[in-house]
Amino acid sequence: MQTSRKGKFQIGLLLLPGLLIFGIFTVYPIIKLFVMSFFEWDFGSISGQKFIGLENYKEVIQDSYFRTAFINSIVYTFVTVPGQMILGFLTAFLIHQVTRFKVGYRVLYYLPVITSWVIASLVFKYVFNTEGLLNCFLVNVIHVTAKNIRWLDTRWSGLWISMFLGIWKGIGWNMVVFLAALQTVPTDLYEAAAIDGANALEKLFHVTLPCIKGTILFALVMLTIGGFNVFTSIKMITGGEPGHKTDVVLTWMYYKAFSTGAFGYAAALSFIITVVLAALALVQFRMMRQKS
Amino acid sequence: MKKKNIIQVILHLFLVGALIVVVLPMVYMVSTSLKPNGALYEYPPRFLPGFDEITIENYLYVLGQGKFYINFFNSIFVAVCTVLLAALIASALGYVIARFAFPGKNFLFSFIVLTMIIPGLTLIIPQYQLAVKLKTINSLAGLIPFYTAWTIPYSTFMIKGFVENIPRELDEATYMDGGSVLTVFGRIIIPLAKPGIASVSIFNFLTAWEEFPWANTVINDNIKRTIPIAISGFFGQHQFTQWGYVFALSVFSLLPILAVFIFCQKFFVAGLTSGSVKG
């Protein structure tokens, strides 16, 4: 079909607002970020910024605080992504089998997803307080420890609260995604497997999982990005304390930029994270393709 | 037949058991908001308040504060504007990308998808600088273009998928009747892609409603705060955190989301999954 001149004009008209907003508020900042990462950036400077080449990148990589934060982000992602996926899938798997209350379960399991990060973080912080409900339960009810545990005061216990929160909040999303995928698996495949004498577990691994591979990959990529995106829960629950030991890459970046004014450093850090994530997404795509 | 029933019962037992664990934190939040403030520092803490203890004083306190209404209105204003702008812009983009060939189209679409990989917050520094330049620091309306830009990639991606499922014959028929590109957009695409647009919009509403880091960075004035900033402000304001107030405010802030979610449950799930099943 040949588009008329008027048609072309209207196509342009439809594209324009999107291109403008996207261009100004997303594309421009991406380019700016890249440029800033090569400068010793100073917001107040009038004389212009000082070009320092790869110095910011060097500083980031050699920084032990960054390495701690990076390891924390990796641990967070490697714990919460499989955690959410497995629990979300199991929930979906069970809901898929039941004949009644399907919608009810779906709605209720989804509640944590629509709870805002700020609120969920505060609830978890309150529960894990040294004088909080969890300690009370551990000490007074099931007697596994004699003293209140200071959850928020050490690196791994502090991180565990955020990871626990991340998993709790993510189950619902995975449940919905996997539930939809399970509905697409043709039932005759199960019947065929049953005729071949497959048991429930064999059906799961040889029929269900291969059929929903696309969804698994989709969830994996989205959640990995989400894992590196974690910010609000860390900021609200531990605030990176004690001594930046519970910082993740984004909270550390934020601290460096807005508390110390090291914008060039933070820009370089941001760019490194983006590249790492792009590489991870690529590897995940490759891995899933090879398996088929 | 009997064995089947037993299996069903076991499944429900598992589901209900896990569900109790999942909703426990929410229940605790509500129960804490119903306790008298003095009881919040008692030790040992209790999961539920006693029957005679239940009070709505925390809710009354929150409602008695003028700034609560302002914060609430701010959040509604920002979220609604973001949703409308994003819906219009992303539908237009999705429509044009799905239906027409133009130079740079593939590049544009790949780029839009690629930006979904970038953690939103990594752009906060150049975006902050941009906001300074545009003088939108500490401005409520200044939040909207940034939120809209964040929601465009995902929204466009989803709506394009919906548009592709609309038969082209409908477009052709409209052109035959003398309709233009814009007529097709208004009469065919928007009405038929409505479920997609709606589901994306619910998601965008949630994004704008609960957004914390950006609003927390650029908004300073008390009266310009959105709800999440107000909640975190409550949290840091007093030496002792007034958990009762915090959670009462939290419950209030969950109500609009709950309402949107319950009314649009069908769209919500449809939107989440259509992208994944195809992939």
UniProtKB/TrEMBL annotation, chain A:
Q: How does it sit in the membrane?
A: Multi-pass membrane protein
Signal peptide range in chain numbering: none
- Lineage top rank: taxon: Bacteria
Localization, UniProt: Cell membrane
UniProt keyword annotation of RNA-binding present: no
ATP-binding recorded as keyword: no
Q: What InterPro entries does this protein map onto?
A: ABC_transporter_permease (IPR051393), MetI-like (IPR000515), MetI-like_sf (IPR035906)
What are the BP-aspect GO terms? transmembrane transport
Please list every transmembrane segment annotated in the UniProt record, as residue ranges: 12-31, 74-95, 107-128, 159-182, 216-237, 257-283
An example of a Gene Ontology cellular component annotation for this protein is: plasma membrane
Q: Where is the ABC transmembrane type-1 domain?
A: 70-284
In terms of one coarse class, where is the protein primarily found? membrane
Q: Which UniProt keywords apply?
A: Cell membrane, Membrane, Transmembrane, Transmembrane helix, Transport
User: What family name appears in the similarity comment?
Assistant: Belongs to the binding-protein-dependent transport system permease family.
Name the UniProt record assigns to this protein: Sugar ABC transporter permease
> From which lineage does this chain's organism come?
Bacteria, Bacillati, Bacillota, Clostridia, Lachnospirales
Automatic annotation (TrEMBL), chain B:
SUPFAM superfamilies per the UniProt record, alphabetical: MetI-like (SSF161098)
Q: Where are its TM segments located?
A: 9-30, 68-95, 107-128, 140-163, 184-206, 243-264
Q: Where in the cell is it found?
A: Cell membrane
- What family does the database annotate? Belongs to the binding-protein-dependent transport system permease family.
CC annotations in GO: plasma membrane
**Entry keyword set:** Cell membrane, Membrane, Transmembrane, Transmembrane helix, Transport
Protein name in the entry: Carbohydrate ABC transporter permease
Superkingdom field: Bacteria
Domain spans labelled ABC transmembrane type-1: 72-264
Give the matching Pfam families: BPD_transp_1
Q: Which GO terms describe its biological process?
A: transmembrane transport
Q: InterPro entries from the entry?
A: BP-dep_ABC_trans_perm, MetI-like, MetI-like_sf
How the protein sits in the membrane? Multi-pass membrane protein
UniProt cross-references to CDD domains, sorted A to Z: TM_PBP2
Principal localisation: membrane
